[in-house]
Amino acid sequence: MIRAIAFTKRNIRRTPFQALAASMVMFLTFLVLQIFVILAAGSQTSLRYFESKPQVIAFFKDGISSQDISAIENALQQEGRVTNTKFVSKEDALQIYRERNKNDPMLLELVTASILPASLEISTQSPQDLAPVAEILKKEPVISDVIVPEDLVTTLTSVTRIIRTVGVATVGFLMVFATLVIIMIIGFKIRLKRTEIEIMRLLGASSSFVRTPFILEGLFYGLTGTALAWVISYGLLWYFTPFLQGYLGEVKLLPVNPLFMLALLGGSLALACFVGGLGSIAAVRRYLKI
Amino acid sequence: MEIKQGEFVFIVGPSGAGKSTLLRILTRELLPTNGEILVGKVDITKIKDRDVPHFRRKVGIVFQDFKLLDDRTVFENVALTLEVQNKSDEEIQKMVEHTLKLVEIWGQRNLFPRQLSGGEAQRTAIARAVVGKPDIVLADEPTGDLDPKTAWGVIQLLNEINSWGTTILMATHNQEIVNTLKRRVIKLKAGKIVSDTKEGKYD
């Protein structure tokens, strides 16, 4: 095996541009794969977050009294679907607004507590309880608007489904493309080394001695391309983490769990071995008749 | 036809007589349409494909056009024989050095084939053929591309290798060499043996 590795290194070193082309194809394939996996995992986590925190927000009209609020809270508690209620006053709303926009003084200047509505955040037992609770709240004359995250969950579910479908289709196509490129490059190298292979056979080289370096070469392209793709995708994720965190709000997706990234690396490397190995074995079977 | 261990045999005959075909059959590159070929006690026409590499390690081959690998140095070309036999790096270093010194080409060990003269290239090819200590060396017109003086140097080298007990089968058109060496000569014509003489001549 050590000798096969030495032969592989020599093969790669003597045709650097082909090696680079093969590795870049694998790199692009696995970069796309990893980006889709990250997107799918992120949307799935977001979906779970919203599903696990069913919440209705009811905004009050101006001039509401504490008795009205208590009456609504008591009515909801008797429903049995509600686990918790939290009143957010105009001042609290301003505080939250200021916190979220602390880096933008222009937005802070224009807003006062009087223009923000007081609200009631109601958590329910399950997502199925959201609609009935919202219906009750909409009937209250002191409530101006009710926001139900049910729509958000529906949207997220369809987004997750689209990411998965598009991801599987794109990555599937790229996998086939990468396998064909590996077959083409290894096949080309086999033809290029026809004389060397013929001489090696006459000197008594076994079939595995001749074939193994070509198969290792395919694996090498797969592994290097994938490892590079992982470094780039992790780097991009790390670079954009502060920016994305602002969008995600309370959804705790970022910074990404290193264990998830390690699992992604492991899975990608295993898949790269499969693609690189499959491509090179197919090329060897097709072009290297011993 | 029987060839004993340690013999030096010339295979002669006109072009197309079957000299190269005979050598290719002896390396199990081709299979005969009928008959058997015993090397030692083994009929090589019946050995399994997976056993062919082991058989070939007992046979060294020298070609008219040398068949050296252009992207490897003299040392690396000769080492290839031992690499395919999975010898250790230490063994390879030792055996290649010994053989290259024997064929008097140690000084050119780091040169590539394109930097060698015809004689040096053929000596490298012979070194590659014998470095694994084969029982038999098959030489297919090894002097065909060489000038007379260089050709004699190659023949002397093959003669020396034969003196160690290695069987040599050499296909050739070189009348002078055959007539001077006075070794066994097998003449082929249209794929058949037409004569087999112990101290033969090229006629």
UniProtKB/TrEMBL annotation, chain A:
Which InterPro entries did the record assign? ABC3_permease_C, FtsX, FtsX_ECD
Q: Which residues cross the membrane?
A: 20-41, 162-188, 219-240, 260-284
Pfam families in the record: FtsX, FtsX_ECD
Localization per record: Cell membrane
Q: Which GO terms describe its biological process?
A: cell division
- Keyword set, alphabetical order: Cell cycle, Cell division, Cell membrane, Membrane, Transmembrane, Transmembrane helix
Q: Does the keyword Cell membrane apply?
A: yes
Q: How does it sit in the membrane?
A: Multi-pass membrane protein
UniProt key word Membrane: yes
Q: Which residues form the FtsX extracellular domain?
A: 55-146
Instruction: Tell me the protein family, please.
Output: Belongs to the ABC-4 integral membrane protein family. FtsX subfamily.
Q: What is this protein called?
A: Cell division protein FtsX
